Every structure is written in structure tokens, then in C-alpha cells.
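Dear colleagues,

As part of the handover before I leave the project, I'm documenting each prediction I ran so the next person doesn't have to rerun anything. This entry is a single chain, and its sequence is reproduced below.
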Amino acid sequence: MRYRAFGLFNQNVSSIGVSLANPDMKLRHKRDLLIAGLEAGINLYEVDSSDFQAAEPLGQAVDSLERAQFLFGLRVRAYSRLASAATVLDLVQEVTEQANLEFIDYLMLELPARGAVSADLLKGATAAKSRGMVRFIGMTGQGPEAERLLKSNSVQVASESFNLASPWSQRNYVRDLSAKGLALIGEDYFPALARDAPAVRAEEEAGQRGNWLARLAEKVVPGPATLHPAYRFLYEVPDWTAEELCLASALNEPAISCFLTSPDDAATLNRLAAVVDREIPAYIPAQIEMARIEYLKSAGL
């Protein structure tokens, strides 16, 4: 694993982090992710206000580590039902107690697409920070509300979408946030436009296991194709998956401290963690840039 500075806060963070906010994943599988992540040297983990059951096993997994050796974040969604500042404080208290930790490193506020963030939500986050329950307040989202929070110095961390198709406006915005001293967490490194529909073939699914499995496989309907033609080449690079190439490309952005991953299992996490030390094929960066130009032109951006 490789590490980067977490903003200007005199702490290093692994190049990739892990989101444990998957309500469909069983708790034992989240434990497996935690173990695999720690063994791979990953030291940033995040839970969600609507799904923080992994806080307890996280606390158990890092019990032997010094507190400064890892980062633990809590994300609060834009339309969360946290109705008052006291409720926010109660949430932070509950999560820290489950994790058996004294504090949460960052409380990430997801800004609404329209309008202002709840005054009570911001008040609660500020109170949690002043009481030492939270080290940093973060935001994800852009617009007038984000600008207001930046001008008032209310946030110290930001989470932003960044990938191989990001236009210059997004790239410059991320770099501007970094220049302001914010710690940046990257999201959406594997965008929908680079994802192919799952190819389901009866003969591949069934193999030699019987005709009834073949008939069952024939009934499986692949999801909608979102892959943009410009990115078809991602599926033709030997020894690389499209997701691995997307992550390797995103990791070239020095303004972002850590990219958040949401792996389905420990094997996938290990594969993504290995990308950090891999060298992307020499001819790929030029293809990625040409594909980005083609995509942005077709999208009118």
C-alpha cells in the first residue's frame, strides 16, 4: 500500500479506503472486508448514518492499533431524518460507542442538490466537533451551499467524484479544494460510462452441471448497458480489468488523498489494493485521454 498526506493535518492515509455502507452485505462479510483491508495496509474506513452496523467489528479490528494509525468516517445523507442538533450528537455518540472509539475522524455531510443543508444538521456537526467527538466536518456536493460552507470555513474535508472522464471543470475544482487545504476523498473512480452490461451466457453459467442450469441461466436478463463506445478498449487490455484501469488512472491525481472503494468481497478488495503498486501499460494514458475527449464531445461538455 502507498500513503498520501491527508490534507494539511499531519496524518497519512492509504491511497484507497473502504466504504462499509452496504445494507445488503451481511455483517460477517463486512468483517472479512475489514480483515482484508487491514492486512493490505488500508487505514480509512467509512460507515453510513443509515447503516453503521460495521462500526462494532471495525472497533474490534483496530483495537491493537494506535488511534492515529487509521481514519474512521461517518457519512450523513442529504435527506437524513436527523431532525435536530441533539439527534446528530446522539448519532455520533452511538457510532463511537459501538466502535469503542473516543471520536470519529470526519463527519461527511451530503449536501442536497437544491437548497441549503439543514441548519440543525450543521449545528449538530459543529457541536460534535467542538466537543471533540469529531475531528473534521466534511461535505460532498457542489453549488451555492458548498461555496457558503467553504467561505465560512465550516468544512475541512471534501468528497468529490473523480474519474478518467472528469471534465477540466471538475479537475480544477478538486485541485482548488486541495489548494485551500481541504483533505480530498475521491469517489466514483469507476463511472457508469465505463461499465459494461453483465454478459450472461447459459453455456458459461451452467458448464457441465446439467441442462436445468442452462435453462435457468437463459432466463437471466443482463442489466442495461452503460458503457460508452469510447471506453470499449478498457476491456481489451491483457491482465487488467476495466475497474482496475479506472482506479489506476484516478490514482494519478495528486490532489486526492484517498479513493473510496465499495468492494463486494475480500477478493475484490485485495485485487483493488494491488493496483496501487502496479504500473499501468505505457500506451493506456494516451488512449484514456483520447476517449475522454471523445466522450465529452459526444456529451456536449
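The radius of gyration is 21 Å. The first strand starts at residue 3 and ends at 5.

All the best with the project,
I.
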